[in-house]
Specification:
Layout: H1 15-27, H2 34-37, E1 50-56, E2 85-87, E3 94-96, E4 109-116, H3 123-132, H4 145-153, E5 163-166, E6 185-187, H5 205-221, H6 228-243, H7 246-249, H8 259-265, H9 268-282, E7 286-290, H10 311-331, E8 338-344, E9 365-371, E10 378-380, E11 382-383, E12 390-392, E13 395-396, H11 397-407, E14 415-418, E15 421-424
Parallel strand pairs: 1-7, 1-8, 4-10, 4-13, 5-6, 5-7
Antiparallel strand pairs: 2-3, 4-9, 8-9, 11-12, 14-15
Helix pairs in contact: 9-10
Amino acid sequence: MKLHMDRTPGLTVNRRECLAASAAVACGIALPKAGFADSSSEVLRGKAEHVISIWLGGGMGQIDTFDPKRKGDPKKKVAGSYYESIETAVPGVRLCEHLKTLAPLMDRATAVRTVNHEMIDEHAAATNRMHTGRPISGTVTYPSLGSLVAHERGVVNEGAPPYVLIGYPNVTRGPGFLGARDGFLYLTDTSQGPAGLSRVDGITPARQSRRESFLSALRRNAEPTTDSRLLDYEAAIEQSLKLSGPEFNRVFQLDKEPSDLRTRYGGEFGQRCLLSRRLVERGVRFIEVSHNLNFLNGAGWDVHNEGILDQHKLIQELDTAVATLISDLEEKGLLDKTLIVITTEFGRPPEFDSGGGRGHQGTAFTCVLAGGGLSHRGAWGETDELSKKIVSNPVSVPDFFATVCATVGIDYRKNLYDGDRPVPITDMGRPIAELFV
């Protein structure tokens, strides 16, 4: 018996639903309508054009940043926040005392405090989950959120790539089954552009022109191909040739910015955020900015043991750079067009470990949305008195992905296809509807 999977737009029945439906019918169980209701309900669509995704590798502790609770004591092993909390622009929404520059801007942001998944003890698996929205699969390499946005929205203009990564590349950031066409351009140093777009010393414009002529001759004499992998690589090569000239590379000249603005953004992480704004202006659709290559506290956001002692330095750096990015985008009329997303692989429990630091927690943690034309409310979702359990409005990783997709006008209910296999674009996620009011 063959199961025919219709590719009708809007149909979001995946393999898991088909199996569940077959089992239910066999057992005489009435199916709930909720799982299929989204196909007929109105699709939420925002009007944002760009995404700046800030990645906090290691696991940002929500209880010490965007979801503060009562003060704890690491020496006496009393669970609670490491820092005092402060008021924000939104009544009833408090932040850690080291987020003092962001606090007055929280009416432009929403700390989603109830993100959750089951991955807690493996950084790589949790990083994959927060980039692809799914567990690791032995049979499918899923695309990252950046590649999904690049695939669905494409380039803003022909003079810019759709997806730029400011940080070290790996498969979790990649296009997965979508192919090289939806991959990223990356750089690790804001003092220069991507190495892949810079000509090697000795390659003059004349030599470059001869090489391109030779490549064109090879293409003309080659047999036509329908192999999507080869076609994707051809498209990636063509894009690289277009971007390798001086015009696009001017976007990396941060010294053209006012010195006082560069100072407001701060150190290397801040300069990455400044570059992300310039990339948005240039027309890049999705930019991921990795935080903390310098490991200001010796451990990054993975604050086990003594790593927590200088955690405040990371928080202060995040505060300064992101607050400046929000204000800068707003001053240039780009904030409503640009969704800022802050994510991390999991959160931190309220209890202190034997060294005074914190372990891992996936049951409840915070990711942040700002700008993008959303109806922000400072915070969404509620956790218990120690930010350990969700009290109201849980947000799954697919739900969070669906919210991002909806903000930039992507149909979060549709299927992508790995060959002939339908893959729901957000693993059946549903956006936080209240942010689109």
